[in-house]
Amino acid sequence: MRRAAPLLALLAGGCSPLLGLVVQAARSESQDIALGQVVSGSTRGASDDFAPSCGAPDGGGDRAHVFVPPRTRRYAVDVSAGYDSVVAVRDDAGEWIACNDDSDRASHSRVEATLEAGRRYTIVVDGYRGRTGDYRLVVEPIPDAPEPAPASPAAPADPEGVLAVGAPMRGDTAAGSDRYSPPCGARPGTPDAVWRFTPPASGPYQLDVIARFDSLLAIYGPDGGEPLGCNDDFGSARRSRLVVSLEEGVEYAVVIDGYNGATGRYLLRASPVRSGGGTLALGQSVAGHTGVGSDRFTPSCGATPGSPEEVWRITIPQDGTYRFSVHAGFDAVVALIDQSGAELACNDDHGDPRVSRIEAPLARGDQLRVVVDGAGGLSGPYRLSVTPMTAEGSAPATCLATSTSRWSRRTKRRWSRTAPPARNVTSCCEKWFSIGVVCSRLWAT
Question: Are residues 63 and 180 in the same domain?
């Protein structure tokens, strides 16, 4: 928190006996919240200790709550307020990992993120452009694979309904008839379910199906014919996903079918896609969706040729060690590419398949491309951030000084070493940079 900065500065000057008092003072302003607990509060009259990036500039009062996950998994942080609220989550290294202004309305904010067991996460409730008011906060786990509910007994024998953005729709293909035979695995004679979808705005949309059987998903335009997209398996036989560009006001047919005659219960959801790519600033958290990207790079740590990705560009402002973090709704891959097209670093999983992280020493003026891709051809939404490593989460100064002083910028090689590293330098790299593939390249002769 900002008001604790002077006390922390005293610690840096050697006042270590004050450590307990400082920690106690800093935490006293935050209220703990347990999983499933509903906390009511108000930001009226609160001090301005945080400035989340998604709509809460300096000047508005905020409240902080500390959440310690009982296990590593995805969680939803939900705020319902009497004003235009903002909710953000910050980890115990000071990095913002998620932020949301409006979910489905101005007074509702919601973020979903993978949180690690035992770590202290600060949940900040703030207001858009300084607004304040009363709120209710709850943290709940997100099921890894929600079980589709049984179809309603009142459902028609030939189910066909209207699909709305963001509304999960449930059904059972066994109650339908065979009107479509999608080309990605359906067999003629297999019953299917059809939903009519009219996009409220032109742009890319993501369609997801989670089923109790080997499902497949297709979408057809108003003229029928060949589908605009068709998918059998997305990560597992019981999941299907499509990302397609649709036009406002046009009615499309979304078809749920079964692979090779399979039928059963399912859950269907449509959501708009926010594309990413462009210039990335230090400390900025950006969102995107790899499904609307193109295939220009194939990161070496799990991506496959033909898999779409999104590319961000960044220029490093000063020498130091930087952390590139990706939190995604799929098994994501992140890679650093230099100006020559050489891959400097790559990471698939960082404790969770949906989390990727690179921590690497970089030099001032380095111009990099940050590639967000998917393992095994997967795609989906993600959030990317880049931050300089803080004192709490960075390598010791002696380690950085020893390792970086032994490097010269490469000519023909990706990285080249000017002198053989000492044993402790190698261990520094392995311990602090946590990316063995980079270490092996850094120390390669």
Answer: no
For the cut 90, the answer to whether the pLDDT of residue 195 exceeds it is: yes
Residue 150 lies in a domain: no
Residue 36's DSSP bridge partners are: none
Structural domain includes residue 155? no
Among 281-295, 356-370, 431-445, the range scoring the smallest mean pLDDT is: 431-445
Instruction: Tell me, yes or no, whether 413 lies in a domain.
Output: yes
Please state, in angstroms and rounded to a whole number, the distance separating the CA atoms of residues 35 and 331: 25
- Contact indicator for 211, 264 with CB cutoff of 8 Å: yes
Q: Taking residues 266-281, what's their average pLDDT? A: 86
The pLDDT tens digits of the residues spanning 218-234 come to 999 998 889 999 999 88
Query: Could you tell me the maximum CA-CA distance found in the chain, to the nearest angstrom?
Result: 77
How confident is residue 294, by pLDDT bands cut at 50, 70 and 90? confident
Are residues 376 and 413 part of one domain? yes
**In angstroms, rounded to a whole number, what is the distance separating the alpha carbons of residues 31 and 276?**
35
- Do residues 352 and 411 share a domain? yes
Q: Say if residue 185 is in the same domain as residue 287.
A: no
Provide the domain limits for residue 338. Answer: 278-442
- Write down which residue in 228, 250, 272 finishes a domain: 272
**What sign has the CA pseudo-torsion 123, 51, 74, 199?**
positive
Q: β-strand 85-90 against 96-100: which pairing, if any?
A: antiparallel
The side-by-side arrangement of strands in the sheet containing 215-220 is 160-163, 193-197, 252-258, 215-220, 229-231
C-alpha span between 85 and 107 (Å, rounded): 6
Lowest mean pLDDT among 159-173, 327-341, 381-395: 381-395
| Structure confidence at residue 378 (pLDDT) | 85
- Can you read off the two tokens belonging to residue 303? 């991506």
407 has a pLDDT exceeding 60: no
d(CA 98, CA 382): 10
**CA distances for 314 relative to 112, 187, 189, 311, 342, angstroms:** 26, 48, 53, 10, 15
Burial of 83 (0-12, 13-18, 19+ CB in 10 A): middle
Average pLDDT over residues 326-350: 92
Q: Which of 92, 107, 141 is the last residue of a domain?
A: 141
- Cβ of 3: how many Cβ atoms within 10 Å? 12
On whether the pTM is more than 0.70, the answer is no
The count of C-alpha atoms lying within 13 angstroms of the C-alpha of 27, restricted to the half-sphere facing its C-beta, is 13
Looking at the 3D structure of the chain, how many domains does it have? 3
Residue 270 has pLDDT above 90, yes or no: yes
Give residues with Cβ within 8 angstroms of 337, minimum separation 6.
Answer: 297, 343, 344, 368, 369, 370, 371
Give a yes or no: residue 148 inside a domain.
Answer: no
